[in-house]
């Protein structure tokens, strides 16, 4: 219980006496932004010994500590000790500590205090022995029911070797009922690893204290800052979660320096931030460390070896260790602690105040990056040094195979703006490199014009060289022709290129195979596309390039999806991701972006909207960094997800963003306009805007149908079939049932002839709905069973209409005697194939259906008498993973089912086993032998 001498606040909470200003805890500053998520994390450490908050200046350490102390549970007391440089003397610190403790325990340490006052600073003093006696006495006074939090603020001001040892001793012998909270700009030299191992330490560092997007926006809003979305995003990105940076910006705005809606940093804030950093950080460092900061400020990222090369010295590793220890706005870039960068605002200040020209430093950095095989950064440094000829020479060292594997064209196109046109066309190698970069960026006219420059180097002095140049030109021309929709010309060029390209030009061979496979899908020949995919995958595996293998598996997944084999497509995507696992995380790759996007699309087909949205957003972000057109797929699928959940404004916003980026990137409309328009038509139909949808569907049908249809774009090779499907759905919504049925039956025949089983599955289910509405239950059931028979590949999204509009009818069909063993002439179709796949599909669809209120729950007795038959195959699979300790999300990922479906299965399992919790279900299942 609380000590009777302890002052108590009106609400009953024990407090430190207000009269003793030495231990006054300051109030929260005006305009403080609450950090409840961080306070909650600190509260988790109250069962330990040490709460450590370490970060550079201005990250809100003290404010967080104050907020945490103010929000302590009622039984807790707190003692606030604000440290100063004078407390570096251990005797003075311990004297202050004891006097602070005596405000709670007045007669504590009478003899100990006398010993401290009698000591002579020039004489040795046994601090650890003194502490040992004090802690023994304190242990008898502390009440675990009323624990005490000792807050040491700004420990970096007082720390030293002797004081560090004193505090380490204190931590090692801390009595029950006392916990330390320490804030510091640098991590103390204590045995933190031992404390962490024993779960006595909870530590918050710079990355934890950074404001997240929501907190940054809340801080701006609380101060009335009026910025447009782009301006706010820019400001939050540049501040990197630095609380002081945002507050200084707001302070400048209060003085009238912040114009509304301006995305840049106001001049007033610039001066405040500069003064703050100079006074609080830079000018407090040793002269040699300040010189290091200015010499390396020109580097976007750096390691000790690179800094040595730029500075022509050998002490960079030691200085970096000093900067790490003192947390001088150094941001680590890897787990090994090898690479770093400076905080953006700190870096800006260093560059602006650097007393020496940077061209020489950039050139030395260029040589270092080049020697270490980091070509892209070497080129960037050469351009910053004002040496475009050096940059062009380095670009020539980039092989076409590397470019075609990574397909990060944003980097090459950025260099292109800084290189003179005469340099770009100075060698066949540069022409081909930039020709491919422009083609991959969909800038077809520019790519074709640059490719024509190869004629200047023909005839070549040697026949082999001439044949190689012509073969490369044909490969490039074939890909450009595919982009323009000229399929005949594209097939001819790609075929000739494959016959003539040397074996070492495997990157261009793979792009030709990819283009030919895409055109085969557009022509409805999925079997040929499958063969071309196989050839590409074998070639990629033969050369051992993980990026090419990932791209080949992406193409293969797209064809498998079109054939309805969604689970196999997911396997291909994950195999592709596995090949990329060892690539540097800090770089962006088109292959990884495409795989992530397509995995999101496949999860949408599996009715896993949460996983789909997460993957799609990640894929869009990486594709945007690579300037890869695959983000179009991501935005269109995201629009579909939002539309199915009734969020039409968000859906159209995704499509608008896709169009905006395509326009900015100068992508020809043939690449994206039809796909975006079709997505809009689907949304308009869902909204009931039939006239608008019909007007644009007619235009699309005129372009991609009829006697001389335009070729489908690369991003949607089955576009024409999907236009026909939307036309049929339009007719159905207009009440033209006969016309809708005619269109659907014709489309079913076309899809079946091309092997497009996923589309055929969608058509059958729309027909089933239509026949059901027209009273023909027998044919509707036959169409449903035919669709079920084709759904072993794992696609669930085509059933969404039945799940939403005919749940009871669908449940009856799935639960009919014999499961779905056939009906109305369809027994053979559903009875064939993989029985476990059929059972899984049945279970997944039943799990997606809402439970009938009239369905009685199963009892434990039912399970006992019915043995394992009362648990479905999918429920047994879920139960086995539960027994292995898997979370619901892990079960979702491993079984390719949605989180909602996992939870539904878990509820059914508990109901059937007559239990309430997972652990009870496992125990009951083991008793009944269900997990053997």
UniProtKB/TrEMBL annotation:
CDD domains: LuxR_C_like (cd06170). Keywords: DNA-binding, Transcription, Transcription regulation. PROSITE patterns: HTH_LUXR_1, HTH_LUXR_2. SMART domains: HTH_LUXR (SM00421). Gene3D superfamilies: Tetratricopeptide repeat domain, Winged helix-like DNA-binding domain superfamily/Winged helix DNA-binding domain. GO terms for biological process: regulation of DNA-templated transcription. This is Helix-turn-helix transcriptional regulator.
């Amino acid at each position: 219980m609380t000590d009777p001498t302890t002052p108590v606040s009106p609400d009953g909470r024990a407090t430190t006496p207000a009269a003793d200003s030495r231990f006054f805890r300051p109030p929260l500053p005006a305009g403080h932004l609450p950090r409840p998520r961080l306070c909650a994390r600190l509260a988790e450490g109250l069962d330990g010994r040490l709460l450590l908050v370490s970060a550079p200046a201005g990250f809100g350490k003290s404010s967080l500590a104050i907020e945490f102390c103010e929000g302590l549970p009622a039984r807790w007391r707190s003692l606030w000790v604000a440290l100063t440089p004078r407390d570096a003397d251990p005797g003075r610190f311990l004297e202050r500590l004891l006097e602070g403790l005596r405000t709670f325990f007045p007669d504590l340490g009478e003899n100990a205090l006398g010993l401290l006052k009698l000591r002579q600073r020039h004489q040795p003093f046994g601090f650890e022995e003194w502490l040992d006696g004090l802690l023994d006495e304190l242990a008898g006074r502390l009440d675990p029911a009323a624990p005490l939090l000792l807050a040491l603020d700004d420990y970096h001001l007082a720390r030293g070797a002797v004081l560090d040892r004193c505090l380490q001793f204190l931590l090692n012998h801390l009595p029950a009922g006392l916990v330390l909270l320490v804030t510091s700009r640098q991590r103390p030299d204590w045995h933190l690893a031992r404390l962490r191992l024993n779960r006595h330490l909870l530590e918050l560092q710079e990355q934890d204290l950074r404001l997240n997007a929501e907190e940054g926006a809340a801080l701006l809003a609380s101060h009335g800052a009026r910025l447009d979305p782009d301006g706010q995003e820019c400001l939050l990105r540049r501040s990197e979660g630095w609380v002081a940076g945002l507050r200084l910006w707001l302070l400048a705005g209060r003085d009238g320096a912040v114009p509304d809606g301006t995305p840049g940093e106001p001049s007033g804030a610039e001066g405040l931030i500069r003064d703050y950093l100079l006074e609080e950080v830079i000018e407090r460092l040793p002269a040699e460390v300040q010189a290091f900061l200015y010499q390396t400020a020109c580097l976007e990222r750096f390691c000790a070896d690179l800094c040595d090369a730029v500075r022509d010295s050998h002490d960079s590793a030691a200085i970096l260790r000093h900067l790490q220890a003192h947390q001088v706005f150094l941001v680590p870039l890897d787990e090994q602690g090898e690479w770093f960068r400076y905080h953006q605002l700190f870096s800006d200040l260093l560059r602006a105040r650097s007393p020496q020209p940077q061209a020489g430093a950039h050139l030395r950095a260029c040589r270092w990056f080049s020697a270490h095989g980091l070509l892209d950064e070497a080129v960037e440094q050469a351009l910053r040094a004002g040496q475009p000829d050096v940059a062009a020479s380095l670009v020539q060292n980039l092989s076409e195979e590397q470019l075609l594997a990574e397909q990060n064209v944003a980097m090459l196109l950025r260099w292109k703006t800084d290189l003179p046109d005469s340099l770009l066309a100075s060698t066949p190698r540069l022409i081909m490199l930039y020709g491919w970069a422009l083609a991959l960026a969909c800038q077809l006219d520019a790519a074709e014009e640059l490719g024509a420059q190869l004629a200047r180097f023909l005839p070549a002095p040697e026949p082999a060289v001439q044949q190689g140049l012509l073969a490369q030109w044909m490969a490039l021309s074939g890909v450009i022709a595919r982009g323009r929709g000229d399929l005949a010309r594209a097939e001819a060029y790609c075929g000739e290129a494959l016959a003539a390209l040397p074996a070492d030009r495997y990157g261009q061979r793979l792009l030709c195979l990819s283009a030919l496979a895409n055109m085969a899908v557009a022509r409805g020949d999925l079997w040929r596309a499958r063969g071309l995919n196989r050839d590409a995958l074998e070639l990629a595996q033969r050369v051992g390039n993980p990026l090419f293998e990932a791209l080949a598996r992406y193409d293969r997944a797209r064809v498998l999806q079109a054939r309805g084999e969604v689970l196999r497509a997911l396997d291909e995507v994950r195999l592709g991701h596995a090949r990329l696992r060892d690539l540097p995380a800090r770089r962006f790759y088109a292959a990884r972006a495409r795989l992530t996007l397509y995995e999101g699309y496949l999860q949408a087909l599996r009715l896993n909207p949460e996983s789909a949205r997460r993957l799609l957003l990640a894929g869009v972000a990486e594709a945007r960094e690579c300037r890869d057109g695959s983000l179009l797929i991501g935005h269109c699928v995201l629009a579909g997800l939002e539309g199915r959940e009734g969020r039409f404004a968000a859906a159209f916003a995704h499509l608008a963003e896709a169009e905006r980026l395509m326009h900015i990137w100068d992508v020809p409309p043939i690449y994206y306009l039809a796909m975006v328009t079709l997505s809009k038509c689907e949304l308009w139909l869902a909204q009931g805007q039939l006239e608008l949808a019909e007007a644009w569907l007619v235009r699309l049908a005129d372009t991609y149908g009829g006697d001389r249809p335009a070729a489908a774009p690369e991003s949607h090779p089955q576009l024409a079939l999907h236009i026909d499907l939307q036309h049929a759905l339009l007719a159905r919504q207009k009440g033209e049932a006969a016309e809708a049925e005619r269109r659907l039956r014709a489309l079913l025949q076309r899809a079946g002839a091309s092997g497009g089983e996923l589309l055929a599955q969608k058509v059958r289910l729309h027909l089933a709905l239509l026949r059901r509405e027209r009273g023909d239950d027998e044919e509707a059931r036959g169409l449903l069973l035919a669709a079920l028979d084709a759904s072993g590949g794992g696609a669930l999204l085509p059933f969404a209409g039945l799940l939403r509009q005919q749940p009871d009818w669908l449940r009856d069909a799935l639960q009919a005697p014999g499961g779905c063993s056939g009906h109305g002439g369809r027994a053979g179709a559903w009875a064939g194939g993989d029985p476990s796949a059929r059972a899984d599909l049945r279970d997944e669809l039943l799990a997606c259906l809402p439970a009938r209120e009239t369905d009685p729950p199963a009892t434990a007795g039912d399970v006992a008498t019915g043995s394992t038959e009362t648990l479905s195959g999918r429920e047994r699979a879920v139960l086995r993973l539960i027994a292995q300790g898997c979370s619901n999300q892990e079960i979702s990922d491993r079984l390719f089912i949605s989180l909602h479906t996992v939870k539904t299965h878990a509820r059914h399992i508990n109901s059937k086993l007559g239990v309430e919790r997972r652990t009870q279900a496992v125990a009951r299942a083991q008793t009944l032998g269900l997990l053997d």
